[in-house]
Amino acid sequence: MADYSGGQQFPGPPRPAGFGVPGGRPSFQQSQQQQQQLQQQQGSFVPPGPPGPAGQAPASPAAYLLCDQSNKATCGAGFGRSGTGNLYGQPASGGGRPNSAGSGGGVGGQATPSPPGFAAPQPVRTSSVGAPGSAFRPPSPAAGFPPPTANGIPAARHPGARTPAFGVRPPGVPVMGPPPLRPPQMGGAPPLGGFQPSQQPSGPGFAPQQPTLGRPRLTPPGAAVPSFGPNRAPPSRNSSFGSDASGPGPGPFYPSPAPPAPGGARPMARAPAFGAAQQGGFSQPGGPGPQLAPNYGTPQNQAVLDQFEALTLGPAAPGQPGDAGIDLASFPRPTGDAAEAAVAPPTPLFPANAHPRYLRLTCNAIPAQQAVRARFQLPLGAIAHPFAEPPADSPLPVVQLENYGIIRCRRCRTYINPFMQWSDDGRRFQCNLCGMVSECPPEYFCGTDGQGKRLDSLQRPELSQGSVEFIAPQEYMVRSPMPPTYIFLIDVSYRAVGLGILPIIAEAIKSSLDHLPGGERTHVGFITFDSSLHFYKMSPGASAPQMMVVAETDEPFVPVPDELIVNLKESREAVEALLDNLANTFAATTSPDSAMGPALQAAYLMMEALGGKLLLFQTSVPNVGVGKITQRDNPTLYNTDSEHRLRVPEDIFFKKFAAEASKAQISIDVFSFSQQFTDLASLSALAKYTTGGVYCYPGFNQARDAPKLQTEIKHNLARQTGWEGVMRVRCSKGLSISQFHGHFFVRSIDLLSLPQVDPDKAFAVQIKHEESVLTGSVAYMQCAVLFSSSNGERRIRVHTLAMPVVQDLADMYKAVDGAATINLLAKLAVEKSYHAKLDDTRSSLAHKLNLTMQEYRSMHKQNTRGQLPHNQLLYPKSLRYLALWVLGLLKSSALRGGARDVPPDERILAGFEIMAAPTPELLRYLYPNLYLVSDPAGDWGRPTAGSRVGRPPCIPLTTMVMRDNSAYLLDNGRIMVLWLGHLIPPSFMQQVFDIDKAPTQDGALSVEPVRKGRELSERINALITDLRRGRAVYPQCFVVRQGSAAEQHMHALLVEDKLAQAQSYVDWMTQLHKTVIAKA
């Protein structure tokens, strides 16, 4: 923005002759004539204005009214532009712009002439002290005008005598300082923009209250506001966050009365609802009646821009303290009532769209032009979760078409969906993706109504719902669906026996046999290994297995290939006998070696013809045969060009073997129990390219970790699973899928190989423009997964979306989904860390956020001509939590710090989980939930409707809200931590742990099992059980005492606090704002 210091005036817009330069001003007689004409038109009397300076006629209010109605830049006499009169027709102190040097001379000085074609400079509203840009002070009632209301807008009068709109500046004229006031509406209506008059008194000594730009302060009147200036210390842990209250006992997070939830800002003006219908829409197939397109376009661009939120991050004027205006409670957080709304997917724009659980767009609108896409700094794509649990009220329909097969487009092979257009009375249909017109099979024919909608659309799920599952005919099968096959590859070396892992694994597998999907078709097999390989022949009807040992590890072979994988029902007795005697069979082993690589090769030979799931249980570091793991953890490689090599496999064997396994439809799950560096970067490659999972148990302790291991094995074996899958994502003409992110193997340019797919796996795709300009008002996306069900059917799960095509960047910011965006950003960041330094990855992520906020501010700056508050960070409502989630990602184990901050295996595990995480699970990981559990008030921990348990409200992740005499439960989806303040009452210890005081040793406390008869123990355990429900990872609950050595591990999970290598939430937002201001 140009520098207008030193009294230089903002040029106004061009004006016609008679209202600016060139052209003369209207004379006094002309003004009187205009006043009389206006009075005759309205039939009302307009009182004369206050007397003007000596030698001049009194200024007429009709001139102001006439100016307001004609929407001109100004109206001649009475506006103080000539330096001889002020806004009210009284002598001006400085002419032109008040309190500015060189703008119009002193009293009676001549005004600076305006450039030809531009309006003369306008006065700037001033406060009682004359500071430019301060609050505007209206005239006193004695001036002949009605007294102002509390917000500075004159009271509305009868329509016959409208009050002049003081302080109103015509559109297009820039204003320094706060935004201009809006004029009152006729007939006593409330002011425009939804601002209601407040009860603040007006008159001498009171400046009228101005409508603020962006977010209001959330601290209620009379409540203490946290201040961190030189005269105020930060609040202690014993005090309520945002108040001065202190003392024992739990208290409210916010002072009473509670303000709105953080993140709720008041917009400047309300825009039409996103997706609101307007005339001229199109008819959407599959919906109940005509469906209108969302209301996009130029007429509402201003309303779209006005829907922003703002966070004050500094003083509003020079000389104020640096933390003035910072209200910690106003920072956006997904806590309290906003917690569920932050995670919840948006409502589908079209009724026939697939549910966002299955396919969730990062932006629910597609730019029509590549130029608009280039300005949108965030990635454009979708999170595909094809096997997500369906909503309770909308089960996934299964469709079996008759002999005519599945209806598809002849050109692009898009599956039939609700958005295809029917013509010729239902004899033809047009593909909604490529536009190809195809013939409808006679067996599938049905007539259409007057709107081109099939008469049977409501009876056919594929024509009315965006998500459907087809039973595929024979032509979709290369071979008959293979039976569900499970091969268990178990390490039985000396270390595995010593840790007591074998009986836990055997018991978990045995208890899951009745829950394996597939029923009578299920097959199983077992291989154990140490320095040699052990195979088990389990003949049908045999009471015990026969073990065969192969000592050859350089070129392993399978002794009896056809008798090692058996039908579970036919060989159930032998299988159970093997599991019962597994621990005793190897109790006396002394071999410390591990031939994991040769064991994998042998398992591949067994499964090559069938495919299936391979579960690897690895304890000792592999040191025999191929796939050896070396101690390659080298901290000196950090911050060098070779740093990324620590996060990728060192031996090419792992990636090559995974590729061969994926080709044979074999999925690998890795369970690691190593007590030392295990090179999880290499082991995880086995699961990454075969759509498997990684489960890590560092420092395995039988008493502590046995429940976690058993629960995760049972969940892995019993969950719904699709076998031999492939996935393809299609887009409308002019769009294409540029990249895929997640765990899979790319078989061709747009075909993903998924040996097994389940509800715990999600994938991400990026969309790119193939044409510079898109034609049409709606674009489409379809995700299709072809797989074999556990009962032997070949099925196709199809999810279809319709997306509006928009012309403006403002519409894209309005339609962006912050939760899906951070999911895609997180996957991109983890992938970047595999070939770049962590510092570069973190910088790239922060730079992307900076560009997003800069572009958004620049968009507003162009619209308002630079009139934006310099101390406020502007962001769209849809991205209110994006900066906080990015901060949580930077502080996660995947990206945080360096070699000394996070163990290498833990970093790899965190990145692996992020790449496969669905959106709700990832958000919980980036910003964990923190609950107060020492306050028995409320219904948390008690049963509610739907067999669930009530939960306390989430509170911010900062020690400022954690009191020394309270207990808090933190849940990030992977672990839970029960934090105890050092002043926790003995009654709490008695209720929860059945002891009088906390022990001195860390790890001596456990909240489980429940203490019978203790209400607080029962409620906390019920809450923990409910939080664990349905998760792929069993989060263990650790008890941490304030001041103990283990507390530092919890501090890394408090996203809003400062860490050694990361900023606090306040510092992060302040730095973001400074960067945006410097470059916007």
Report on this model:
By secondary structure, this protein is an alpha+beta fold. Helices cover 23% and strands 14% of the residues. The chain has 23 helices and 29 strands. The strands form 6 sheets. Strands 3, 5, 9, 18, 20, 21, 23 and 24 form an 8-stranded mixed sheet that branches. Strands 10, 11, 12, 13, 14, 15, 16 and 17 form an 8-stranded mixed sheet that branches. The longest helix is centred in the last third of the chain and has 27 residues, at 838-864. It is globular, with a radius of gyration of 35 Å. The chain starts with 27 loop residues before the first helix and ends with a helix.
Q: From the helix content, strand content and strand pairing, which structural class follows?
A: alpha+beta
Poorly predicted runs: 1-25, 44-305
Determine the number of helices (DSSP H or I, runs of at least 4 residues): 23
Tell me the number of strands: 29
Task: State the helicity in percent bands.
Answer: 10-25%
Shape: globular
Quote the distance from N terminus to C terminus: 10 Å
Strand content: 5-15%
Characterize the biggest β-sheet.
8 strands, mixed
Gyration radius (Cα, Å) is: 35 Å
Average pLDDT figure: 78
Summarize the structure.
By secondary structure, the chain is an alpha+beta fold. The protein is built from 23 helices and 29 strands.
